[in-house]
TrEMBL record:
The protein's name: Uncharacterized protein
Source taxon at top rank: Bacteria
Region (Disordered): 1-38
Organism: Streptomyces luteoverticillatus (Streptoverticillium luteoverticillatus)
Biased composition (Basic and acidic residues): 1-14
InterPro entries: Gp3-like
Lineage of source species: Bacteria, Bacillati, Actinomycetota, Actinomycetes, Kitasatosporales
């Protein structure tokens, strides 16, 4: 029989902590049934109730549980489409091309050479040369798609810890080298804005298209108070 000491003092009950090296994830969408849904404001997931409360207080929304097998069981549908963040230089961004299988990546490359498995690392990956052909292969599941991972802290709440944003956006990939060059020029932790930009256009067949793409704006060197210790 387990101890019942916290039944009489629930405020002292230890709170569950998020065991990942990051305290939460920023997400630009969610699943609505079996269909992906793009959001107009950031969705943040975490396994730490204190982080969820702090995010909700800063950006709106409220912590709620969502169906997941991962640790980040709490989600906050914020009201913010842009947040100030601090990225610790170009090393805060990891980009690769990945084709996922049931057991993990079955193709991982940088677009020209394999990144894994170790025995194939550095050898030609065989991906198409043209961007349009890469997109077509990824769309049909025959080729890898972009995976951009950004690790950062919140500029106004650096003590919360580090968050992660993962994107498969081709639009972000097109300008990623510019972001990395600007981070390199800063030469250390950089104050940035992570935002969702509305894109609207009409196709040649007259179909209206509307979605939001992730954008990273690099501003300047971060102040000491904005950098987590």
């Amino acid at each position: 029989m387990s101890l019942r000491i916290f039944e009489t003092d629930p405020e002292s009950r230890p709170k569950p902590r998020f065991s990942s090296d990051t305290v939460g994830r920023f997400r630009s969408g969610r699943m609505a049934g079996n269909r992906p849904e793009s959001l107009s404001a950031w969705r943040v997931t975490t396994g730490d109730p204190e982080v969820a409360d702090a995010v909700a207080k800063a950006y709106g929304g409220r912590p709620e549980e969502w169906e997941t097998s991962a640790e980040d069981r709490l989600e906050v549908l914020t009201e913010a489409d842009a947040v100030k963040i601090v990225i610790d230089g170009p090393q805060g961004i990891r980009s690769r091309m990945v084709l996922w299988g049931r057991q993990g990546p079955i193709h991982e490359c940088d677009g020209v050479e394999f990144l894994s498995p170790e025995e194939d690392k550095g050898t030609p990956c065989g991906c198409p040369a043209l961007l349009a052909d890469r997109k077509a292969a990824a769309k049909t599941g025959r080729g890898p798609a972009p995976s951009v991972e950004v690790t950062f802290s919140l500029a106004d709440q650096p003590d919360l810890g580090r968050f992660r944003f993962v994107s498969g956006s081709w639009e972000l990939v097109k300008v990623l080298h510019e972001v990395e060059n600007k981070l390199e020029a800063v030469g250390g932790p950089a104050l940035c804005t992570l935002r969702l930009e509305l894109v609207e256009f009409q196709t040649k067949s007259g179909i209206d298209v509307r979605y939001r793409k992730p954008v990273i704006d690099v501003h300047k060197a971060a102040q000491p108070a904005e950098v987590p210790f």
